[in-house]
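Data card: per-record layout.
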Amino acid sequence: MSDWLHDLFSGRPWWMNIVMVFCAFMAFIYMPWDIFWKPVEADQEVWLGVMFTGWAAKFAALPHWYLYAALAYGFRRRRSWMRILAPLYAAQVAIGMLLWPNFQYGSWTGFFFGLVAGIPFALLTLAFWNARDHFVHRRGSLRERYGDWALITGASAGIGLEFARALARDGIHCVLVARRGEKLEALAAELREKFQVEVRVEAEDLASPGGPDRVADAVADIEVGILVNNAGIGYAGRFDKQDVTRLTDMVNLNCLAPVLLTSRLLPGMRDRHRGAVIMTGSVAGRQPLPLHGVYSATKAFDLHLGEAIWAEMRSEGVDALVLEPGPTLTEFQEVAGELQHSGASASSVVDAALDALGLQPSVVAGWWNWVRANAASRFASRPLVAYAARFIMAMQTPKEMR
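The structure for this 402-residue chain is written out next.
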């Protein structure tokens, strides 16, 4: 519990932590009570000094509820839009505190009480304005934070390829791992020419017996500071229509390979007291996914493993992160046998991961994916989630595999 509290409140000035706790209380305790349980005839809500009562207060409370939730989340994750929202909301409260007593009492009495109530919030507005750079996330040099070398699996295309480019851009030497050696060599030449980094190519099938250990042996002479467990495959279709060999390979690649590679490389990071492990999971790991059942199960495995490593290794100086993308424009859809559908760019997904690394145990890439993932798991019953997921996946799965 003490580790969690330290992680929750570190990195912010004390007064900002107090405001964050207040916003969380309002969002999760007071506003739900105020909206759903407080009698209508007793309800009151104030915006910019204007008092609303009865049903008008109930409706006026809804944006308040949303605002407090946004503020609590923004403080917790230091979102850039808080540079404007935090001082703007504090200023709105200051104006309300200044005007309300004037509406209530009038004359000099109202003016005096308005100043007394409004000045503290005016000062809070100034404090937020002066602290607005607190909400500008600076990624910093990944090489300085974690070391000279990164190992990226599944680097021949898609998200893995973009991870390699992003890390090389930061001056990190790269070990590229995938089955297709010719694609890795082409990427290696690009990284050497553009970023003047060293690049090693390890053409290996990580789903095969001994594949992860052969890769770990090949990099035993260097200090791998960042391990990106990105290699993975999907397989669309109803379980009874799927080939068991492909399912076995998927479990080996998506689950066993990250376990074996991490077990080999993590101790060195721990001993050096710096390093990072990134697991490419999926929003599919947040729920059962009919017509992608085994795939979603493997990604749930990756999610739980990565978040557990985050909690275990945080005090050892090693960061861990589970990246949870939604549909992404890569080879995944074709290889998995899905019908083509829209998705995010692989580079935007990688940016989301590197921005979150060191700050949180997992990140869902894309706000709409975040909404869908959390709404499904927190507000709907599991049978409803499973049926809704089957309906969506059926539109992305060839008819003969449904």
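Known properties of this structure: The chain has a mean pLDDT of 91. The chain has two domains: 2-135, 142-401.

See the next section for split statistics.
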